[in-house]
Amino acid sequence: MSNSSFTNVTVAGGTGALGFNIAEALLNDGSFTVKVLRRMPETPNDKADLLASKGAEIVYADYNQHDHLVKALNGTDALISVVSPGRTGSYDFDALQTPLLDAAKAAGVKRFIPSEFGIDYKVGDHPINDTKASFREKVVNSGLEYTIILCGLFAEYLGVLYDIKNKTAKFYADGSTELAVIALSDIGKYTAESLKLEESRNATIRVAGSRLSLNEILEKFEEATGSKWEVVVDKEVKHRFQNKIDPVPSPMDLYISVVLERASFENIDNDKFSFSPRPLVDVINVLVQMASI
Ligand SMILES: NC(=O)c1ccc[n+]([C@@H]2O[C@H](COP(=O)([O-])OP(=O)(O)OC[C@H]3O[C@@H](n4cnc5c(N)ncnc54)[C@H](OP(=O)(O)O)[C@@H]3O)[C@@H](O)[C@H]2O)c1
């Protein structure tokens, strides 16, 4: 592990679910000056306030105005994009991030980390991932250094498969299907430390908190709740979605079923990093506690 040649790091989307954890990990590391890039207009945001109280500079830009973005990125060595258009109903990661990449080039940014943070998707799997793939190609060909960080499923989001309140698990694949799962705080730490890692230059880095089957994760939920769960297996999601067969799955059901096909990594890079990730059971216990409030 070398010292980072990236002192000034900007996190675009640092107020988001993952972006906050990445910005916080950079600040906790102590070797970086951290800027959080937000969209104009300025809006109150608790996470931005918290990051500012820990030393981050909060900057605003209009993503549609190249000069605005370039000005906001001036002095940045590494730009970590953790933006997501999801909450607006659009899932075009390419359209959202292209202005950022163009501005990064103009501002002399050395390394770009795109908003990936998911699975080993293949082109054609799903339109959302196709927009990530087309943007990834732009990043790889941009002339900037890059790191693609893949981390499997966010552990805090396991509720999409495991319904704690109703003690029901919905699997879109065989129970033996293995998943890479990771806590948000660990993705933050891996991302921050990747900036100090020789092997992350122009590379894909795969990290995971644990790699367990759907059934093994179910056992952990059963232990944490002290009860036996019901399991519903639905493997026909893609077929029903494509052929509009009742009950027609929602686009989110389809997306989750696609994620499950690709959410396991053969090789992971955890041993290149200086720390061990949190055990999954820690996050599961927190989820169970939260569900009982
Ligand atoms: N592996 C997994 O299980 C998993 C799960 C969820 C997400 N992800 C991935 O993780 C990444 C981050 O997702 P997230 O859920 O953390 O994101 P998020 O919380 O939905 O949003 C992140 C930030 O993006 C900015 N943003 C939102 N809409 C925007 C727009 N239209 N234009 C520009 N900026 C916009 C906002 O920041 P400001 O308002 O401050 O500008 C927001 O706080 C994405 O790549 C996503 O696909 C992976």
UniProtKB/TrEMBL annotation:
Domain NmrA-like: start-end pairs: 8-240
Family matches, as CDD domains: PCBER_SDR_a
Keywords, comma-separated and alphabetical: NADP, Oxidoreductase
Gene3D superfamilies reported in the protein's UniProt record: NAD(P)-binding Rossmann-like Domain (3.40.50.720), UDP-galactose 4-epimerase, domain 1 (3.90.25.10)
Matching Pfam families: NmrA
GO molecular function: oxidoreductase activity
PANTHER family: NMRA-LIKE DOMAIN-CONTAINING PROTEIN-RELATED, NMRA-LIKE FAMILY PROTEIN
Name of this protein: 8380_t:CDS:1
Organism whose genome encodes this protein: Paraglomus brasilianum
